[in-house]
Structures are given as structure tokens and as C-alpha cells.
Amino acid sequence: MKKLYLTYLTGITLLVMLLSGCKKAPIDSQIQGFWILQQFTTLEDGEVHPCERLYYSIGRSVTEISERQGPNGYGHYVGLTEFREDNTVLVVKDFKPKNSAAGDTGEKAPVEKLRPFGINNQEETVFEILHCNGKTMTLESDYARLELEKF
């Protein structure tokens, strides 16, 4: 009886260890998460664009941007996320409008729809992470400098 008990206990322990090892850890928990875009500055003209109810959800491989209950109707878009250069560079690309279900529409989002979020390129936007302490983050691309706060 004791041998059977030890066999079950060992089997359960191994199963728990295997299942817990399958979880994908964040690449950088300070960068990944939910952010509210406070403002962005276009670098070409130095104009500051205050933002209202614009959000970034930055994940391991997907980034979602959206206006939530805001006055402008900017929409909801989903794109791919990539981290480069020891997590000092964040790349977002290939944004598509998100439909009401769990996926996207399959069509590329027009750049005009992405500009209110500080993005000026459908193919690939490369942000240098100028500052990130887990509470605030500053990103800069060749188009704009974004100021975000953790949500």
C-alpha cells in the first residue's frame, strides 16, 4: 500500500512540474501589459497631440491598440509584437482591424487609422524604448515620441 501511495505521489508531482513549465513567461514584464497613451509628439513638427482614452495592450507576440468609449471612433486594431536588441527596441507591425470576435478582419489597417495612436507605418514601426519603469514608458520612432502610463 505504501509503495502504491509513493508511486501516485511521484506521478502527481511530476505532472504538476511538467504543466507549470509550459507557461510562457513575459519577455519583459515592465514593458508588457496594458498602457494608456497620454500624448504623443510628432517629431517632424514638434506638435504635441493629447490623447483621450487610447490604449495599448502589449503582449509577448501581439499588440492591440484601441480607443475605448472615446469620442473619436478610432477603432480597435491588432498587430504583431517583436522585441529586439535586448528588449531596448519594440517593433509593432501588420495591424489589422479587430472584429467583435476573437480575431482580426484579415484586412490591413490603413495608416490614417493608426496615426491617432502615434503609428505612421503599416509595415513596421520601430520604437526605441527611451524610458520604462513599469509605471511610465516613453517610446520613440522615426515619426513620434509616445508617453504612456500603466493602466
**Helix proportion of residues, in percent?**
10-25%
Mean model confidence by pLDDT: 86
Strand tally, please?
A: 8
Let me know the largest β-sheet. 8 strands, antiparallel, barrel
The Cα radius of gyration reads: 20 Å
Q: Which runs of at least 5 residues are low in confidence (pLDDT < 50)?
A: none
Task: Give the SSE string.
Answer: HEEEEEHEEE
Distance between the ends: 54 Å
Number of helices: 2
Beta-strand percent range: 35-45%
Q: What structural class do the secondary elements suggest?
A: alpha+beta
Bulk shape: globular
Task: Output the strand order for the largest sheet.
Answer: 1-2-3-4-5-6-7-8
Q: Strands, helices and their partners?
A:
Elements: H1 2-20, E1 33-42, E2 48-58, E3 62-67, E4 76-84, E5 89-97, H2 111-114, E6 125-132, E7 136-140, E8 144-150
Antiparallel strand pairs: 1-2, 1-8, 2-3, 3-4, 4-5, 5-6, 6-7, 7-8
